[in-house]
Amino acid sequence: MPKKERTFAAKLAHESRVTQREICTVCGKEKTPVVYIAALSGAKNTWRPQRRRIKICDCNRNEIYG
């Protein structure tokens, strides 16, 4: 079965969603989305990962990466 082609309007809508970036109000630089993985302790001394999507910039990079 052939792959369905996207219309020009659909391509423009996708580009407008993707290229929209947040600017930090403190340092004025662009925020970058990353996946933050933290280790959480569970029942019976087990560990499990917790994945969160956060946005970092220059002013909070040291807090996240340590």
Major β-sheet annotation: 2 strands, antiparallel
Widest β-sheet, arrangement of strands: 1-2
Order of SSEs, N→C?
HEEH
Shape: flat
Overall residue-averaged pLDDT value: 84
Q: Tell me the distance between the termini.
A: 50 Å
Question: Can you describe this structure?
Answer:
- By secondary structure, the chain is α+β, with helices and mostly antiparallel strands.
- About 25% of the residues lie in helices and about 30% in strands.
- The protein has a domain at about 25-65.
- It is built from two helices and two strands; from the N terminus they run αββα.
- A hairpin with a 5-residue loop joins β1 and β2 (about 45-55).
- The radius of gyration is 19 Å and the shape is flat.
- The N and C termini lie far apart (about 50 Å).
- The relative contact order is 0.18.
- The mean pLDDT is about 85.
Q: How is the topology of this model organized?
A:
Elements: H1 8-18, E1 32-41, E2 47-56, H2 61-65
Antiparallel strand pairs: 1-2
Kindly summarize this structure in a few lines:
With 66 residues, the protein is an alpha+beta fold. The protein has helices at residues 8-18, 61-65, and strands at residues 32-41, 47-56.
Key phrases:
66 residues, alpha+beta, 30% strand, flat
